[in-house]
Write a structure and sequence with these properties.
Helix 1 (4-16) packs across helix 3 (30-44), helix 1 (4-16) crosses helix 4 (59-78) and helix 2 (19-26) crosses helix 3. The chain is of the alpha/beta class and 297 residues long. 32% of the residues are buried. The chain has a domain at 163-264: D-Maltodextrin-Binding Protein, domain 2 (3-Layer(aba) Sandwich), CATH 3.40.190. It has 12 helices and 11 strands. It has helices at 4-16, 19-26, 30-44, 59-78, 100-104, 107-118, 133-137, 171-177, 201-208, 223-231, 245-249, 275-292; strands at 49-50, 56-57, 93-98, 121-126, 143-146, 155-169, 192-194, 217-219, 237-240, 254-255, 261-271. 42% of the residues lie in helices and 20% in strands.
Amino acid sequence: MLDYKLLNALAAVVEQGGFERAAQVLGLSQSAVSQRIKLLEARLGQPLLLRSSPPQPTEVGRRLLNHVQQVRLLERNLHGQVPGLDSQAMPERLRIALNADSLATWWAAAVQPFCATHELLLELVVEDQAVGLKRMRAGDVAACVCASEVAVTGARCEPLGAMRYLALASPAFMARYFPDGFSAKDLPQVPAIVFGADDRLQHRYLEALGLAEGFVHHLCPSSEGFVQLALAGLGWGLMPALQVQGQLARGELVELLPGQHVDVPLYWHHWRQGGELLDSLTLHLRRVARSKLIALG
């Protein structure tokens, strides 16, 4: 049987970023919090926290934290239904894996009304849309937005829509590298911009043009920085149409090949046993995504 006083101490240390703040939240001494975690580690026979700054959970520690979060969500369902339960429970903080481009475009406006109404807090883990599902498999997050439609054990998968990506560059970049007009065969030899090692959008674009995979590129792990590099003329890259509407309208960015784009499907994965709150968030996202994303065929 799990001791939830010990689990809550573990959760408080991670959520508050340290033992001192966790002690203040729990109304305990810092020594008492430390002893609770040591006792939990002793019972399980393995470390649950890396004593870094801030403390980070081990793999097993993260699984326990997810369990605590699930219990909190399920307990929320009972408040107002069972007399005598504490109605002053701490607001839930959902840990969600999300691709950076969604965070930079449609996500905030989509979830703001829901978070305000339900007093929901979010902990967002930014991952490429191609790999966010790994977080679900590891039990690291309660939900994720990713490009895979294959649900993991214990979770459901809901289609949201697709994000359209356009291959863009600045007029100055095009004039420098393609003074005689755009030539697709020369594209692998001019600088591109890639978000990170898991970003395959530029690769897909080149493959669609029948070009070899190898190409020169910058690495920029920031959606906003990605656009800024392109505006400065450092390279070309695939950018969400939602993010660059203004730059396109002003002529600050231009398409390499008008009409040649990449659509990336997005799916919402979430725990089956996440309680009414997570179910309600799912329904909300399915509804609002229709106005933000392209319908999946």
